[in-house]
Design goal:
The complex is a heterodimer. By secondary structure, chain A is mostly helical. Chain A contains three helices and no strands. In chain B, helix 3 crosses helix 9 (178-209). Chain B is globular. Classes of the chains: A mainly alpha, B mainly alpha.
Chain lengths: 75, 514
């Protein structure tokens, strides 16, 4: 059974990969560009870029937090 | 003019006071080139930001947001992905840097691929590619001084003034080296990205509340991205984000930030500190640019939108602050570029072929910085019509370092033949395509020349990794290098020498190259 630490390592890796995917996969931004209705009162492409950026930001904060509580950052 | 220049003078005087108080320590080249790897997370975070976001962010990317709209947000995506990459490679790069006393990006190439000549190739590509951007940075300062002189200075006079100011600033870069760069980056970064972000948010509020401008005021075309059937091509945005994220760490002056930290902890913490600030600053800048772009006074002058909106919202005082913010951002980038180039000239070009003492390395590095400052200053005062094209060409070329760099850090199998061939062929392909098609490849579905060359680059690297397998001693050396990163006990001695070049090291006391 994987340890709690290794699960968090996999979560961070998966989140980083997801960030790369959503930031680069063309059909996603094509779809955002085609989407004419506003999302929460904002244009879809703006929501797309802000969402991708927020996800990257949060993933690094999560990785840092996980590394800190697992003792990885004490060496 | 007295008010605008006066505000900048106060900022500049504060900077000089800080620089004068820094203790000179050139007892080793590591002290001079990487500040003896002594900086904590806060200095690292601000130093990274101050080098990453140049003053041109306010003019070029602010202007792009104003003129072209949402496509400019690609800079936000790739800037944050770059921090993610920093987080991922912090441990191996810092560990190798500490253990083997690496001082430059080509040092890392040389260590990983066990080759002396790869250091020269990487250094030459880095130095040549950086010069057009250095000149552009100096000329952007001239544009700023012209604007802040409120029409008193001609463009030529303003460029000369900008060059004189930035060249004067380099006295301390040359004297103190990396320690001066990082400490001043902290001060400059606070002004550029803390004060700058506060100003941007204030200006967005002003645009919405006073000017009545919001996203709904903008034309729908400003929110569209290039897709299938577009003029740019469906893969254009993909290409921009990919090459931007990978390319960021190919610049020697960005990469060397990984060697100035006092540990992996500081590096990772600096990523955690830098990323929210980077996110808020860049997002605010791009939203500001899009909104301010429809100010009637900004029509036809998108690159001046930072100054135009600041002056309209807060008069001469805010205009002076806008100039100070831009100056602070520009200085960090230019200082970093000059410092890294000087270190490479000494360490990776001359030091690669001649045995040099610490004193000689530092003197050559200082002379290199001085000559580069003079060369860039001289070229900045000339009319160079192809300069921007050269800068784009340089970017497409330098990102070819990404393949041997990242694959070398994360994949054991790559070898020096593949590394040298892949980046040289990639560089040649990128330059040829850029010169042939001038940035618009009709058959590439929007991929830039650099992105197409990256595909060739990866193929060459991987094929050569399998066609020319590493011999047993090289395999063992690489395995030892990677094992070092995974070691828990960092006080053990290590040795990871190879046939072409040997390294001996001590994990607790820094290393020597023999």
């Amino acid at each position: 059974m994987p340890s709690k630490k290794s699960i968090h390592v996999y979560v961070v890796r998966a989140w980083f990969l997801l960030n790369v995917f959503v930031a680069l996969y063309p059909p996603l931004y094509w779809a955002a560009s085609e989407h004419r209705e506003l999302i929460l009162g904002l244009p879809a492409t703006f929501v797309y870029f802000t969402g991708v950026s927020l996800s990257i930001t949060l993933s690094i904060l999560y990785a840092w937090w996980q590394d800190a509580i697992s003792g990885e950052l004490t060496s | 003019m007295i008010m605008t220049f006066g505000i900048m003078l106060v900022f500049f005087a504060g900077l000089i006071v800080i620089l004068q108080r820094i203790r000179l320590d050139d007892s080793s080249f590591s002290n001079y080139a990487v500040g003896n790897r002594s900086f904590g997370a806060r200095y690292q975070a601000m130093s990274f930001l101050n080098t990453w976001y140049p003053g041109a962010m306010f003019t070029a990317f602010g202007g792009m947001a104003a003129a072209s709209g949402i496509i400019s947000f690609y800079v936000l995506s790739y800037s944050l992905l770059t921090v993610m990459l920093m987080y991922m490679m912090a441990k191996p790069v810092w560990m190798w840097g500490k253990v083997f006393d690496l001082k430059t990006q080509p040092d890392l190439f040389s260590l990983r691929y066990n080759s002396r000549h790869i250091r020269t190739i990487a250094a030459v590509i880095g130095i040549i590619s950086g010069i057009p951007w250095l000149i552009l940075g100096m000329q952007a300062l001239g544009e700023m001084f012209r604007y802040l002189s409120l029409g008193t200075l001609t463009f030529s006079q303003a460029v000369i003034l900008g060059v004189v100011v930035i060249a004067f600033r380099q006295i301390w870069t040359v004297r103190i080296g990396m320690r001066g760069v990082v400490i001043s980056d902290f001060y400059q970064g606070m002004v550029a990205y803390i004060v700058g972000t506060a100003m941007l948010i204030g200006l967005i509020v002003w645009l919405i509340m006073v000017e009545g401008i919001s996203f709904s005021s903008l034309d729908a075309a400003r929110f569209s991205l290039p897709g299938p059937g577009s003029k740019e091509g469906p893969l254009f945005l993909f290409s921009l984000v990919l090459t931007g994220a990978l390319g960021g760490w190919c610049w020697p002056y960005i990469f060397v930030r990984l060697f100035t930290a006092n540990g992996v902890t500081s590096l990772k913490k600096s990523a955690g500190l830098a990323i929210p600030l980077s996110f808020i600053f860049c997002l605010a800048l791009l939203i500001f640019g899009m909104l301010a772009g429809i100010l009637p006074s900004a029509s036809g002058h998108p690159n001046d939108v930072w100054f135009i909106a600041s002056q309209e919202a807060g008069g001469i005082i805010l205009l002076g602050l806008a100039g100070t913010v831009l100056l602070a951002a520009s200085m960090g980038h230019i200082d970093g570029n000059i410092q890294a180039t000087g270190a490479q000239i000494a360490n990776d070009l001359l030091g690669n072929y001649f045995p040099l003492s610490t004193r000689q390395l530092i003197v050559i590095s200082k002379i290199g910085m001085l000559l580069l400052t003079l060369l860039a200053s001289w070229l900045s005062c000339m009319a160079l019509p192809a300069l921007f094209s050269l800068a784009v060409l340089a970017y497409q070329g330098i990102i070819q370092l990404a393949v041997p760099q990242f694959m070398g850090i994360f994949w054991k199998r790559g070898n020096k033949y593949g590394a040298m061939a892949s980046m040289s062929i990639g560089f040649a392909v990128a330059v040829t395509l850029e010169l042939t098609y001038h940035g618009n490849l009709p058959w590439a579905y929007g991929l830039t020349s650099g992105a197409v060359a990256l595909i060739v680059n990866v193929m060459v690297y991987v094929v050569m990794a399998y066609v020319i397998p590493q011999n047993q001693s090289e395999k063992a050396r690489i395995a030892a290098l990677f094992e070092l990163v995974n070691e828990k006990h960092h006080d053990a001695n290590c040795r990871a020498g190879g046939a072409g070049e040997q390294f001996s090291c001590s994990l607790d006391g820094g290393g020597t190259r023999s």
